[in-house]
DNA sequence: TTGCAATACATCGGCACCGATGTATTGTCT
DNA sequence: AGACAATACATCGGTGCCGATGTATTGCAA
């Protein structure tokens, strides 16, 4: 999730770590804050993997800035991660949102549609948080008001997202000329 | 999140690790699968902390079962974690849902209401995933269809959850005689 | 002028998580 | 008879995450 965000933001333009941190905080910070002690090692990892290069730029701020630029390998890697997301990227809303935030970088509407389709398939599978044996329970069958809330909210989210997915898939298919 | 689920399930009745795993998988497994190699160390941790006790029960299955029971300290700890959740439990939907799944164990409707109120406050804060300077952008202002989707879906979820929160808070206050 | 917040980076130790792998038994399908 | 899934636990190495802490500068407010 973190690495995807780093690659995603740098795909647009080179940034230094601190600026990157502010952008990631704005994107997902209200849900799950990003610690500096997580970001800087992540940058180092990506650098060691040849996905980004750093150029030290003195002046302007306090400590010398390290401006980070994606290498061609880094650009390819972002596109790969967007086109072939792990199952967790599809099922976990937090990670899915991060992926969505950068999906435009995939350019090919067919590839974008394929990713949305995976999320649609996931949301279409009949799953619940609560079961009676193997049978998923509906909200109406759950007496506990808090567990009922989980199902009520999840259903509303699912409905809204499915509608959006279908709408967006239609316009992507139109764009691709299908 | 994992520890909370363990404590939550055992609050109802003693279970062995394997059964615990199945219940946790049913609860959150479709979002984020739980690995055995994460569960067993977590059980050990809680045991070492004096929150649960294990009783070896031979027979029945394959390997001898370790039936896990919450100690009084474990029961108190669950109530404490439910009553005083960390900020991440409030902001992260996955963790919030886990908390909701066991909030009934808190019994006192006033304490339950206080927790729901924290979530309501969080959802009421004007935040976005995208900003222009400091100003949060509305869905209508975001051209990228995927980022627009994030805001559209988040708004629908938020609306549904706020309605549920207000409804449930009202009935909790009624139950508490406020 | 003293102090604090913001800018900008970095390290370290502890710990949680996970995939891989191992052990052993029961039940079922072929 | 043999294969395989399910039951039931456990360990180990690698790695990512995080809080605490450190360094150094700029700029604003008390």
Automatic annotation (TrEMBL), chains A, B:
Domain Transcription regulator PadR N-terminal span(s) in chain numbering: 6-79
Pfam families: PadR (PF03551)
Domain of life: Bacteria
InterPro entries membership: Metal_resp_DNA-bind_regulator (IPR052509), Tscrpt_reg_PadR_N (IPR005149), WH-like_DNA-bd_sf (IPR036388), WH_DNA-bd_sf (IPR036390)
Species the sequence originates in: Streptomyces palmae
Designated name of the protein: PadR family transcriptional regulator
Cross-referenced PANTHER family: CONSERVED PROTEIN, PADR-FAMILY TRANSCRIPTIONAL REGULATOR
């Amino acid at each position: 999730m973190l690495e995807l965000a780093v690659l995603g933001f740098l795909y647009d333009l080179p940034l230094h770590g601190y600026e990157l941190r502010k952008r990631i905080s704005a994107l997902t910070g209200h849900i799950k804050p990003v610690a500096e002690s997580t970001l800087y090692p992540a940058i180092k990892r990506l650098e060691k993997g040849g996905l980004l290069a750093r150029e030290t730029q003195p002046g302007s701020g306090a400590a010398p800035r390290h401006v980070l630029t994606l290498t061609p390998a880094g650009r390819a890697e972002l596109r790969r991660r967007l086109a072939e997301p792990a199952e967790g990227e599809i099922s976990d809303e937090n990670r899915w949102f991060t992926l969505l935030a950068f999906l435009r970088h995939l350019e090919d509407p067919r590839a974008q549609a394929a990713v949305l389709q995976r999320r649609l398939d996931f949301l279409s599978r009949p799953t619940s948080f609560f079961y009676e044996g193997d049978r998923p329970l509906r909200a109406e069958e759950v007496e506990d008001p808090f567990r009922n809330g989980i199902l009520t909210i999840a259903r509303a989210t699912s409905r809204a997202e499915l509608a959006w997915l279908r709408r967006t898939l239609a316009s992507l298919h139109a764009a691709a000329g299908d």
